[in-house]
Amino acid sequence: MYCRKIDNRAVDVVPSYKDRFHQGLHSQFVECPDDVQAGWIYDADEDTWSAPPPLPEPEEEEEESSE
Q1: Any idea what DSSP says for residue 19?
Q2: From CA 67, how far away is CA 65, in angstroms rounded?
Q3: For 9-56, how does the pLDDT look when each residue is reduced to its tens digit (9 = 90+)?
Q4: N or C: which end of the chain has fewer CB within 10 A?
């Protein structure tokens, strides 16, 4: 698999990029493990990919009482 890496995040994860993207983008693609998905983060120091942390649950707003 290959992915286009921007700011150490995977985008455009594809099995082959040469026939799908303009030649000007080819230098942005890197080889990656098969389980990498769009949005995953690359750690250059460890040479590993990981899923982004989950988004926090939205807080519920308290209803105002009308008296």
Answers
A1: T
A2: 6
A3: 999 999 999 989 999 999 999 999 999 999 999 999 999 999 998 888
A4: C
Place of tokens 């890496």: 5
**Phi and psi, residue 3, nearest 5°:** -140, 150
Contacts of 1 (CB under 8 A, 6+ apart): 13, 14, 15, 31, 32, 33, 34, 36
Q: Which residues of 2-30 are buried (b: 16+ CB within 10 A; e: fewer)?
A: bbbbeeeebebbeeebeeebeeeeeeebe
Nearest CA among 30, 1, 37, 28 for reference residue 16 = 1
